[in-house]
Every structure is written in C-alpha cells, then in structure tokens.
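Q&A log
Question type: sequence-to-structure
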Amino acid sequence: MEDDELKAILREAFGDSSSDSDGEASPERRELVQFNHSNSEIGRPQSIFGDNSIWEPISEINGLSICRDFLSADQQRSLLSALEKEGYLGEASQNQAMRFGDLPPWALELSRIIRENVLLSDNSKESCLFPSKLIGREPLFNQLIVNIYQPGEGICAHVDLMRFEDGIAIVSLESSCVMHFSPVEDEVVGKCQEANHKCVTSAKIPVLLNPGSVILMWGEARYQWKHEINRKPGFQNWQEQEIDQKRRTSVTLRRLCGTE
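Response status: OK
Response body:
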C-alpha cells in the first residue's frame, strides 16, 4: 500500500491530525512524535506495515480475541523502557500502578494502534474484535493499570469492576503465561451443588498470553466470564510443557463509566 493511500485511509477514519501543514504541532503531539522516534516507532500497527499482526478469536468465548504479535521484540523493549522511565518498574516492593484521566504518551499510542489494528485488520469482524460503538468512542481508554508479577504471582478469578465500561485491552510483556477463563454462572452452580454434596468441575478455557500479545474483551467475555492467572508450580502448562516462570508485566487499558 502506498503512503498516500494509507494516509487517506487514516484521514477518513480519524480526521486530520492535531497538526496541519501550516501550523506547528501541539506540545502533546510533539511529545508523542518524539516518543515514537525514540522508541523504534512502537506505534506502527503491524497489520499495515507487515504481515505479522493477525487477530485470533477464541472460539469458545464470544467477545474474546488475541493478537499474538501485536508488539515486536524491539517495541516491547521500548515500552518497558518507557515504563521504567516513568517509575512504574522502579521499586521491587511496588507491583501495581494506576492512572486515571489523561494517559501518558505511551498509553495513548497503545490505544491508537489498538484502534487502527482493529479497524484496518483484514480479518476484522464485529463478532470477534470490538464493535463500532466501542472502537469509535473518544477516548477509547482513559484508565490504565500496570501490574508486575514475580514468578509464582498471579491473579484470582474475577470479572472487572462494573465501574468500567465494556471493552478492555490487556498487553503482556516479559514472560508468557496461561490465563484461564471460566463462566460466571459456574460459581453459582458450584455453590448450589456443594450444598447437595456433589462435585462440580468448572469448565476453564486456557489462553496463552505470550510477550508482545494483546487480548481484547467485550460483551460476554467481559461480563459473563471470569479470568485468572495461577502461576503457582504445576499450573502453568501449555501443550504439555511447563512454562518457565519469569517476571511478567501487563498493561490493562479500560474506560471509566460516565466519562465523555
């Protein structure tokens, strides 16, 4: 695809950029451009500039998709460097950081390329990625969480708080892991059956999150399925192989309810 054709597509989808040919870019835009140049252009969506970015719907769960090659190795290092410069990875005792409202440049870039990848992906379907009402909202995300997990640390089964709107993105860095999804109703059924002294095994759907991948959750995947990561010994296996446990960093992007 020629550059002029690509620019025309992006202009039609998103409008003109914050800077025009006659004026100077805003300070925010200059900061973003500088971030792109100094971080190996992390913002370039690979679905446009290469053939590596493929969205894979998780067939068992409506509204759950993963892009396994969302960020290249260089882009992952650039993102980790940006996190380190902002102090997210500074102290070993600090394993979580949140931000609301105005997001930092690197998070805005992640939001932008998620939107562009969804809109421009050749295999984009409303049923497996984000529906138009979500991907077209402004801002796409306005809240982030950076989590750092040491070997053996994970997250309990949960559904994200209802204070956040539909549509969640999770970017994985550093270490692979298996995230398990289980239906919310299993918890209710399990309690009922437990009262009758019956054993019920919840159906869990495993999804491998490799470094550089991003998963999107909306609709049923966001509200009707719990997700968890058990990184204790014996629980992290994929294709009959145990995953080597290393530090894992994740970036979760969401949008608060009631925000414009």
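Response note: Helices lie at 3-14, 27-38, 46-49, 73-85, 105-120, 132-135, 185-195, 220-223.
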